[in-house]
Design brief:
- The protein is an all-alpha fold and about 240 residues long.
- The chain is built from 10 helices and no strands.
- Helix 3 runs antiparallel to helix 7 and helix 6 runs antiparallel to helix 7.
- The longest helix has 27 residues.
- It is globular.
- The N terminus is likely disordered.
């Protein structure tokens, strides 16, 4: 019975294909070329051109949002538990470092098209290439504020979102400083700049954290520091 079904399926497929127009090699090549051109056009349309206004928008909009959430909490969302609200801010700030790591490692470096946009930054790290603010705002509202509001109430949700927003602003400020500021040696920001420079320069993937390497240490994605290896080699010799 199974063999009869297979034979019938093959016969039906051959009959269907006999009615299809036969494509020569040139037509197949043209279709492939058109497909590649469409993909290339889509990548170009998704690419980000340097835009100072769009780039600095985060540094204006997110402080306003932060102040607005704090004012909203005290104006009409105050629940008489300020310590819990402050704890939610701390937890949100810490949670951002994990979100930062996961987005950088699994989205910016591996998701099609988004990866292409991130490659622009790697090729031109000093260009003012922004992250679309509508995308980051959508994430903050849809993935942070609304779910935490539904689960814990506005008091905790506002504090948690303030913490996430402060974490995002810290990340953005540090990332900008790493590529545009002269940073004094011996500071935490200088060490962060060194490990981020390794992320850009190394052929191996790692050092995904920008504001912290905590999650890189936890998940084993810290890149070896060439200066430390050289120092150990000299001391060993």
């Amino acid at each position: 019975m199974l063999s009869l079904l297979c034979a019938f399926s093959q016969t039906a497929t051959e009959a269907y294909e006999s009615f299809l127009p036969v494509k020569n090699e040139e037509e197949s090549y043209d279709e492939s070329s058109q497909s590649m051109q469409r993909a290339s056009h889509m990548r170009r349309s998704l690419s980000r051109k340097p835009n100072a206004i769009a780039y600095y928008t985060d540094f204006v909009v997110y402080p306003i949002i932060t102040v607005g959430l704090i004012a909203a909490y005290f104006a009409w969302g105050y629940d008489g538990r300020p310590l819990i609200w402050l704890a939610a801010i701390v937890i949100g700030t810490a949670a951002w470092t994990l979100v930062e790591y996961l987005i950088h490692r699994f989205v910016l470096h591996h998701v099609v098209y988004i990866r292409d946009m991130h490659v622009q930054h790697h090729h031109a790290p000093t260009e003012l290439i922004d992250t679309p603010i509508w995308l980051s705002l959508f994430f903050m509202v849809a993935a942070v504020l609304l779910p935490s509001w539904w689960a814990f109430g506005f008091g905790v949700a506002s504090g948690f979102t303030v913490g996430m927003t402060l974490g995002y602003l810290t990340y953005g400020t540090m990332h900008h400083a790493m590529h545009h500021w002269r940073i004094p040696h011996g500071t935490y920001l200088y060490r962060a700049k060194r490990w981020h420079a390794q992320h850009h320069a190394s052929a191996d993937e790692g050092n995904y954290g920008v504001s912290s390497l905590f999650w890189d240490h936890l998940f084993g994605t810290v890149l070896p520091d060439p200066a430390m290896k050289s120092r150990r080699r000299r001391e060993g010799g």
